[in-house]
Amino acid sequence: MALFITEDEVAQLLTMDDALRAVEEAFRQHGQGSAVNRPRTRVRVPHGMLHVMAAGLPPQGVLGLKAYTAFRGTTRFHVHLYSAEDGRLLALLEANRLGQVRTGAASGVATKYLARPDASIVGIFGTGWQARSQLEAICAVRRVREVRAYGRDPARRAAFSREMEAALGVLVRPASEPGTVVEGADIVVTITTAKTPVFDGRWLAGGSHVNAAGSNFAEKQEIDEATVTAARLIVVDSKEQARIECGDLIGP
User: Fold this and answer.
1) Catalytic residue among 66, 112, 195, 220
2) Superfamily of chain region 3-99
């Protein structure tokens, strides 16, 4: 019988360490060619949209899809997990928290391998629910001593800073200007819905690492041409997906 796993159960069972290990292994299998990953497809209707992403990990004996709907400002996520041996439905998961943790873990794995080992100052653009798991994952792979957080709403960024400082045990400062987030930061994270770049790439310090995590439509762009052209290395989780929807790379 298939399992139905609720949001509360996901929150109780899934840790960031679990997610970091799982995402790293999935990336490794994808790089080795043993995993299957398909670009996102979207179905538009008058009042909203259905988004579907499918993938498979044959060595683990599973394949599945994440489907999420966005209607009138409300987004709902579900993951369908199937047996890669006989196609049986293994589980259906409510996946708001799962997706939040997975997105953070992807940035955590990138930071683990691409940021300097001594990176300790983080600047983050965005103070929404996805920003929380970004910081959680980065703090799991680096000894962070200071975070600078910027969001458009002063009250929200102040509340976010207090919440994350208490949760992570590191100093989190609300930043009033984008420049103070970037200048001198070892790691810069963008996790916003912006359609235009959120900072000037000329502000970046040499040797810094950027996790541009928010752009999931071709029309969105969080980083500018200066950031892209100055990068020694650009890494994406899926080349197929990036060619279609990565506004950060399509735009510049």
Assistant:
1) 66
2) ornithine cyclodeaminase, domain 1 (3.30.1780.10)
